[in-house]
Design brief:
With 476 residues, the protein is of the alpha/beta class. The chain is 37% helix and 22% strand. It has an 8-stranded parallel barrel, surrounded by 7 helices.
Length: 476
């Protein structure tokens, strides 16, 4: 078998003050970044417009297809304004929480009626990213009586989480709708949805977004795990948002949840991104801890399409180093001789109900049998490239498409290198163009083989129905 493609798991870097200049964006791409995330929890539209322009300009200069993910903030449950600025909560204290932006001294203001509607006695309320935990003793329409289980000082506007309860809140807020409209106008390639609790949240966003961008659902609520298969089916990809998920789930349950999400997304042929604190120590330090390196490698071994840098690249002191080190970890893991054992363990669960999936499976087998140099997916929408990537083959995957947006989108998929080409007139022209492209991209001999997947007639989205085994020397 041939060695794995040089780029298997991709790197998604978050843009921020440390990475938004053109020379920084260029440096991150050259260090190994594949895509950029725009975090709409921070920054004005003017800031994001400049970042969009920077990415597109630098990508054009480098001849790269660089996808942009616009990450919506989503609903943020927060306490209101604490009287005096700080409320000291001691272990075992009883404290009242009342509905509103402000509250009398000694009580907690919470301006979210949905929270009061959802909570029951015995429920937990987490505040300040889980550093404070309360147990609900009594519930009324506008008042909660709670007991402090994990004490600490509570200050203004700290976050609130309620594990195990589904809230009657839309995933897209009024702010999100404004941000979404802006991001779509900017030509974003993906939209990341926060606060997804069910597949209905994704379907509602799909009605707004249409086919203007692909949707990535952030799995950050335990209620999302309850509806995970349907959420993944409704989405184009998912993100394992381990930060928020780790607040609402017991710590020991996060690793199994991560593995479950990755395996299920892979089985459905959907993108899966592992996010949050991958190399967190590199916000300040020039090198990560060994535990962080192992954490990143684990995501690679599980078969994630991408791993994400957040503060490390957005505000960190060493953004290029973080990307470069992450790229080294990915490369080492993907070249491990046992790497494909985990990849193959998911194959039994694959959903191969579509024609494209069935042909992709046959193509992967043919590539192994002929010791092919590469798999080539001719695609309009990207579905053929995603179908091949789902199988995590040992050969490089080249996505050939006449659609610039598809080229950018497929760049995020595991093992896929996209190429934007003119639309061929017929299948023979496609064969010749694909062979020439592969010869430029790879070091090939006349006796090497390529496996081409395409649709006949060419130019029809979702029409993959043909596989061809090409001997390079026969097309010269």
């Amino acid at each position: 078998m041939r060695a794995p493609a040089p780029t298997t798991t991709k790197i998604l870097a978050t843009m921020g003050p440390a990475s938004e200049s053109p020379h920084r964006a260029r440096a991150l791409l050259q260090a190994g970044a594949t895509a950029f995330r725009m975090n709409f929890s921070h920054g004005a539209h003017k800031d994001h417009a400049e970042r969009f322009a920077t990415v597109r300009e630098v990508a054009d200069d480098l001849g790269r297809h660089v996808p942009i993910i616009s990450d919506m903030q989503g609903p943020k449950l927060r306490v209101g304004k604490i009287d005096g600025g700080t409320l000291k909560l001691g272990y075992g204290d009883e404290v009242d929480a009342v509905l509103g932006e402000e509250a009398p001294a000694g009580t907690i203001p919470i301006p979210h009626p949905e929270l009061f509607e959802a909570l029951k006695p015995g429920d937990s309320v987490m505040m300040d990213d889980g550093f404070i935990r309360l147990e609900v003793l009594d519930c009324k329409a506008e008042k909660l009586t709670c007991k402090v289980e994990v004490p600490g000082p509570l200050t203004d506007r700290k976050g609130v989480n309620i594990p195990g309860r589904k809230l009657n809140i839309n995933a897209l807020t009024a702010k999100d709708l404004r941000d979404l409209d802006f991001a779509l106008d900017q030509g974003t390639d993906y939209v990341a949805l926060s606060f997804v609790q069910s597949a209905a949240d994704v379907a509602a966003a799909r009605k707004i977004i249409g086919n203007r961008a692909r949707i990535i659902s952030k799995i950050e609520k335990p209620s999302a795990l309850d509806d995970l298969p349907a959420i993944i089916a409704e989405s184009d990809g998912v993100m394992v948002a381990r930060g928020d998920l780790g607040v609402e789930l017991p710590l020991e349950q996060v690793p199994p949840a991560q593995r479950q999400i990755i395996r299920l997304a892979r089985s459905q042929g959907k993108l899966v991104i592992v996010a949050t604190q991958m190399l967190q120590s590199m916000v300040d330090a020039p090198t990560p801890t060994r535990a962080e390196a192992q954490d990143t490698a684990a995501a690679v071994y599980y078969g994630a399409d991408a791993v994400m840098l957040s503060a490390e690249s957005a505000v960190g002191r060493h953004p290029e180093a973080a990307v470069a080190i992450m790229a080294r970890i990915i490369r080492a893991a993907s070249q491990d001789p046992t790497y494909h054992e985990e990849m193959e363990s998911v194959l039994l669960d694959l959903d191969a109900n579509s024609t494209a999936a069935a042909i992709a499976t046959a193509a992967s087998y043919a590539a192994d049998t002929t010791d092919a140099a590469a798999l080539i997916a001719s695609t309009e929408s990207g579905s053929t490239a995603y179908a091949i990537a789902q199988l995590r083959p040992e050969q490089p995957i080249l996505a050939v498409t006449p659609v610039a947006k598809t080229a950018r989108q497929t760049a995020l998929a595991w093992g896929v290198t996209p190429h934007h080409v003119s639309r061929p007139g017929d299948f023979e022209a496609l064969t010749q163009a694909s062979t020439s492209l592969a010869k430029e991209a790879l070091s090939l001999n006349a006796d090497d083989h390529l496996v081409l997947l395409a649709g006949i007639p060419t130019g029809t989205a979702g029409g993959t129905n043909t596989m061809k085994i090409i001997r390079v020397g026969d097309e010269t």
